[in-house]
Design a protein that fits this description.
185 residues, alpha+beta, eight-stranded mixed sheet, five-stranded mixed sheet, 46% strand, globular
C-alpha cells in the first residue's frame, strides 16, 4: 500500500513543479533533493536555440555544455538521477554526462514516448559506469543543426533515495510506450 501511495504522489509531483530557465551565459543544472512531502519538484528548461554550441567536425554535431555541481557527498542510500523531457519536434539529437575528466559515464537509460509524442529520457546512478560523488560533472546536449526558433527541453535532476528514483522511473514507464532501453556495453 505504501508503494502505491508513493507512486500516486510521484505521478502528481511529476506534473506539479516549479520551472526556471537556464542561465545561458553560465548554464548550470540545479538539483532536487528531499522527499515528495518537501514541496514541488523543481525543473529547468533550456531553449535549444539559445545554448552556446561548439561544432564537432568529427561527429558533425553541435554540442552545448550544462554544468552539474554536486556540492555534498551523496549518502549510500541516495541516488543521482537525470530526466530530459522533449516535445515531438525538436532539434535534440543526443546527450551524455561527463565526469570531471571529460569522460562519458552514461551506460544506459530508459526512453519512453507518451501518447502525445513527448519523449522522456531518464537515467540514474544505476545506469552510470561510475558513482556520482561530490564534484563537477557536465551534461552535454548535441544537435545536428542549431534551431533558428525557440525549441524547449525540460531538465530535471536530483539526489534522492533509490525508492524515490525507482518511483520516478516507474512513473515515466507508465506514461507511454517504452520505445528504447539503450545500453552502451
Amino acid at each position: 500500500m505504501k508503494k502505491i501511495i508513493l507512486l500516486v504522489m510521484l505521478v502528481f509531483s511529476l506534473n506539479a513543479y516549479s520551472q526556471s530557465e537556464i542561465n545561458y551565459e553560465s548554464a548550470k543544472l540545479s538539483l532536487f533533493s528531499g522527499d515528495l512531502l518537501d514541496g514541488e519538484l523543481r525543473s529547468q528548461y533550456a531553449d535549444l536555440s539559445q545554448l552556446k554550441y561548439v561544432y564537432n567536425s568529427k561527429n558533425e554535431l553541435y554540442t552545448a555544455e550544462i554544468k552539474i555541481n554536486i556540492d555534498n557527498d551523496i549518502a549510500t542510500s541516495d541516488a543521482f538521477w537525470l530526466m530530459l523531457i522533449l516535445k515531438e519536434n525538436t532539434a535534440f539529437y543526443s546527450w551524455s554526462i561527463l565526469n570531471g575528466q571529460g569522460k562519458g559515464i552514461v551506460r544506459s537509460f530508459v526512453h519512453s514516448t507518451s501518447k502525445n509524442g513527448e519523449r522522456t529520457f531518464i537515467q540514474g546512478q544505476d545506469c552510470l559506469s561510475e558513482m556520482i560523488t561530490k564534484g563537477k560533472y557536465t551534461l552535454t546536449i548535441s544537435v545536428k543543426e542549431i534551431p533558428k526558433t525557440s525549441d524547449f527541453m525540460i531538465l530535471r535532476a536530483g539526489v534522492n533515495s533509490y525508492e524515490y528514483y525507482n518511483g520516478i522511473k516507474h512513473a515515466v514507464q507508465m506514461q507511454g510506450n517504452i520505445t528504447k532501453v539503450f545500453n552502451k556495453f
